[in-house]
Amino acid sequence: MEKLIKLVPRGSSSQSMFILAPIFAIFLTLLTGSIIFFLMGYNPSNALKIFFISPISNAYGISELLVKATPLALIAMGLSFCFKNNIYNIGAEGQLTMGAIFGGGVGIYFYDISSVLILPGMIIAGVLGGALWAMIPALLKTKFNTNEILTSLMLAYIALLILDYLVVGPWRDPDGFNFPKTRPFGESGRMPILFQGLRIHFGLIITLILIAFSWFIYSKTIFGFQLKVSGFSPKAARFAGFNKNFLIFSAFAISGAFAGLAGVGEVSGPIGLIYRDISPNYGFTAIIVCFLGRLHPLGIIFASLVIALTYLGAEDAQLFLQIPAAVGFVFQGLVLFFLLGSDLLVNFKLRLNN
Amino acid sequence: MIFGIVNIILIGTTPLVFAAIGELVVEKSGVLNLGLEGMMLVGAVSAFVTLVLTDSYLAALIVSLISGLVMSGLFAFLVLYLMANQVATGLALTIFGIGISSMIGKKYVGTPIDGLSPYFLIIISFLVVIFIGYFFKKTKLGLIVKAVGESHHSAHSLGFNVIKIRFISILFGGAMSALAGFYFSICYAPMWQEGMIAGRGWIALALVVFATWKPERILLGAYIFGGVAIMQMNLQAFGVKFPGQFFNMMPYLVTILVLVIISGNKLRIKLSAPACLTLPFNKNQ
Amino acid sequence: MNPYLLEINNICKKYPGVIANNNVSFNIRDGKIHALLGENGAGKSTLVKILFGLVTSDSGNILLNREEIKFKNPSEAKATGVGMVFQHFSLFESLTVSENLILGLEENISFKKLKNRAIEISKKYDLTLDLDSPINNLSAGEKQSVEIVRALLQEPKILIMDEPTSVLTPNESDKLFAILKKLTNEGKTILYITHKLDEVIKNCDEVTIMRNGEVITTCSAEAETKETLAVKMLGYKVKSQVTDYKSVKNNILFQVKNLSKEYNDPFLTDIKNISFSLKEGEIFGIAGVAGNGQKELMELLTGENIDNIRGEVLFDNTNITNLPTKFRRELAIGFVPEDRLGHSAVPELSLSENILLSQFAGNKFSKIGILNFEEIETYTKNVISNFNVKTPNELISAKNLSGGNLQKFVIGREISSNPKLLIVYQPTWGVDTGAESFIRESLIKLSKEGTSLLIISQDLDELIEITHSVSVISKGKLSEPFETKNLNIEKLGIMMGGEID
Fold it and tell me: Are the Cβ atoms of A333 and B97 closer than 8 angstroms?
């Protein structure tokens, strides 16, 4: 069977397609979204407006956008260290959870003490928690050559179960009417708010600093260079004398640390305590953000804003149109589908076969 | 009493069996589809809604299966023809499935239906597992699927159409996941609730590894996993203070253990993990 | 009666930059074992791929029993009676022997029928076959038996065997030839690809010798000796030596003593007690046909794969046997491996970035972990201009350079670091003639400046041209060194053809 349209490999990757593909994907997503809204009986332009425009039409909305984008961008940035090295860390949700548990644990322990040391202590604990949890798949990979996709994934679910156990059992708030949540942290255990009346907190600043720091590491240091080479050509990395195991551990440690930081950021920031729903799938959605952002700091910032908007839009859609909030996931899934599809055009050209 | 326990286990683990046996075939052909959770939800909601609208179990079954084929077909198209990353695409499928099933099912949450007896599908699940076991052991097509999953380049040079075989395997997996969803919303619950699959899709994935890609072991593994869950519930009922969450962790912990054990090369071959799992096939290389 | 089963007429096949088959013509007699002899790059594998339908020729034709054949894929070849046993098996490790056999068959027959036919064939030709054993439990010889049975099940008229004894023990090789003899006694024809002279003399009826894509001659194997074959195979006259013996000093810089390593892998060559030494300023060549341990030896010398190594490697009186690559580099040893893309250079990275793959002692490319881009850029630009690398700038990705230019860059990168010893594997493989001469001149110039060079190459002409002395590696063993200007070509050919004491 002769194909009508043939895929012809390009001589070199198309730079313009590399940047256009995400934009193309977003456009297609909006188009498909409107069709879905229409099929379900909603006015598409109205629905799109409520979904994408109204959530950020005021200062509070923009602050909410940043509240959601912060952990997404942070986790995605950490994940980029792994994905660039062809390491599939799918368990960021678990590393985030462990960060929240470790960091939040410190917050609960000192709930009635006032000191400037508490929040930094929580942050350090959270970073450690996430990094340690990520070391497990790293260890299994370097020592036993175990595939990290399934191990990191399984560990994510184990972490969520540990969280469940803690908030229902030993860490449950004694004054909390038996709800599955912990005590609220004290004042000292909360991230400072940036603007009066808005929820956006200091975590945003930390995230931006870490993103800049990551960019610096990746493009300006020997370590970043070693990661790059190892991801492209393991044989060349061996030739150059780079230590493969060290790089694997580092990539996992960094992404685990970032995810753990996002976790403690969430519980000490907008939430203020630990309960079951500390993360609406951030660890998994961050993977989408990472891909959509092309594993690049600027792209990740842009992508995290776009994806955060789908969360907000979903909440508003539920409020105003009674569409279930899970519609946000529809958009997230769609944008990744379209991106993965149009990705092909970076390395291949379409040609009509006569 | 034992009969009661066996009964509960059988009824509770059948969706796992369907989803896992489907994914087993997909993975044997060399593809990893992380979208089980999403496909099961879509299968569940489409079955439920169809039943409410048409009052026909047959229609519900057909629509559910079609939904599974569409979802998995989308995955297959992206992964085989556009050579998209299998891990990312599978995740996207799950996330999308969670969302779209919520949207479709919104109007019907809480609608009562007459559930179908589960025993019918339980028997079907046995038959499917036995058939797939026979398929891989005794048929040439089953051999070809195994060959494609083990070394797609060798299979290609022997003249087999790697893409076509993987495509059909993926579609089969989609149909099975949808069937699992159908069972869930029509026989087990029976109702529709947002996110009702509650992570069983991930357990099904773990089950495939735990069973080391052998069909008979899917049944064994499902009953062990189910048995553990039952034990957990009963212990709590008897006031034993052992936290249920640690029981629920067992499937995941054991799966990690199995993964570590089979990561040594010789054992992998003995335990039949497909060597080409997750590797994209580019016939020009 | 036509005595020829196959008539190959003027087959031509060109690839970008190289003529793989240039008017190849010869005939294969029915019922004979016909050898196809030649070094690597001679064009043997291209021709065979054309015969089996994996590749199509640009021009020329092939007649099978006087009828023209032009296969578009292996299935057509198999159906028309051409069978092939590959050098690197295409078997499925986790499946059993009978399952692999079924997969190789075009038709659908029942397991039972297949088993019967397979047992029949294995009995007839004395091929041991355990039908229910998984492939991964078999030895290399047993795996090859499976491949042969798989090919025979199709009832071929001609069986092509690609370097079959490369993975066999001497015992297994003898057994194989007994089987081949049985096959020809029944009227089957064998086309036997090899570079081993003794096998040709002992077991084959006729031989076609190829070199550089052309057929040199076709003759009867009985009338030849190893020496005459060697001359025909390598067939060159002593070239004018370019190298300068005055640069060789008296002190020994680099010494390898009884280097050995076992790999337990039939596709890798064990290294057996290799010893040689290099004087300061000397260019020493190691010649040999591919697959005799060159790659393995290279990895032992670079430090990339040195577990379980035995013996000693001494550089400048320092024992570097177990030293990793990075540290060897810091002692001023440079390395140029065979593969460019993916080994000595990363295709997706720019030339400046690729400079960083080989960092010598005292380099200023980074300070406290932070890259010094200015320094890197200057250094890269110098390499580009000093070594004639044709590229618009240093930011171009390595994969966009032609083979010759990338090789000049890689070699230039090493030379610019002022090494005391440079080890190169295949310096001009896949490189255009202009770059070829430039590279060879650069290497000679380097030795004149006092650097010692070890060059491992399959290009004998090249080694003759630039080395001071040369040894031959065969089956993991190294011959004694010979001064290049007084080389005995027959002796060399015999060693390359398989025999080192």
Answer: yes
Q: For residue C134, which residues of chain B lie inside 8 Å, CB to CB?
A: 269
Nearest CA in chain B to C135: B269
Test B150 with C95 for CB contact under 8 angstroms.
yes
Answer whether C201 touches B (CB < 8 Å). no
> In this complex, how many residue pairs, one in chain B and one in chain C, have their CB atoms less than 8 Å apart?
47
Give C4-234's CATH code, choosing from 3.40.50.1000, 3.40.50.300, 3.30.1330.30, 2.60.40.2310. Answer: 3.40.50.300
List the single best residue of C94, C115, C137, C143 to mutate versus B (max B Cβ within 10 A). C94
Report domain B2-270's class.
Answer: mainly alpha
C397 contacts on A by Cβ (under 8 Å): 12
Among C1, B76, C157, B130, residue whose Cα is nearest residue A341? B76
- Map out the domains of chain C as residue ranges: 4-234, 237-332+418-501, 344-417
Cβ neighbours of C326 in A, within 8 Å: 240-241
Q: What is the CATH number of the domain that holds A117?
A: 1.10.3470.10
Give me the pLDDT at residue C500, please.
66
CB contacts, 8 Å: C327 with chain A: 241
Domain C237-332+418-501 sits in CATH at: 3.40.50.300
DSSP sequence for B70-139: HHHHHHHIIIIIS---HHHHHHHHHHHHHHHHHHHHGGGTT----PPPHHHHHHHHHHHHHHHHHHHHH-
User: Over the stretch A90-137, which tens digit does the pLDDT of each residue have?
Assistant: 999 999 999 999 999 999 888 888 888 889 999 999 999 999 999 999
Chain B residues with a Cβ under 8 Å from any Cβ in chain C: 138, 140, 143-144, 146-147, 150-151, 154-155, 157-160, 266, 269, 272, 275
More confident residue, A100 or C431: A100
Whether A337 is covered by a domain: the verdict is: no
Domain count, chain A: 1
CB spacing of C91 vs B140 below 8 angstroms: no
Domain of A172, in residue numbers: 57-310
**Chain C residues 132-161 with CB within 8 Å of chain B:** 134, 136
Looking at residue C45, its pLDDT comes to 83
Asked if B96's CB is within 8 angstroms of A337's CB, the reply is yes
In chain C, residues with a C-beta closer than 8 Å to the C-beta of A241 are 324-327, 329
Q: Is residue A249, in this structure, part of any structural domain at all?
A: yes
Q: Is the pTM of this model over 0.90?
A: no
Q: Using the beta-carbon criterion (under 8 Å), do A220 and C346 form an inter-chain contact? A: no
Instruction: Write out pLDDT tens, residues C227-243.
Output: 788 777 776 544 555 66
CB atoms within 10 A of CB A59: 12
> pLDDT tens, C48-70?
889 988 888 999 999 998 889 88
Cα separation, A6 vs A24, in Å, equals: 21
Distance from CA of B245 to the nearest CA of A (A): 6
Residue A2: what pLDDT? 44
In a domain, A353, yes or no: no
Q: Is residue A121 part of a domain?
A: yes
CA distance C401 to chain A (A): 11
Q: What is the largest CA-CA distance in chain B?
A: 63
SS3 C13: strand
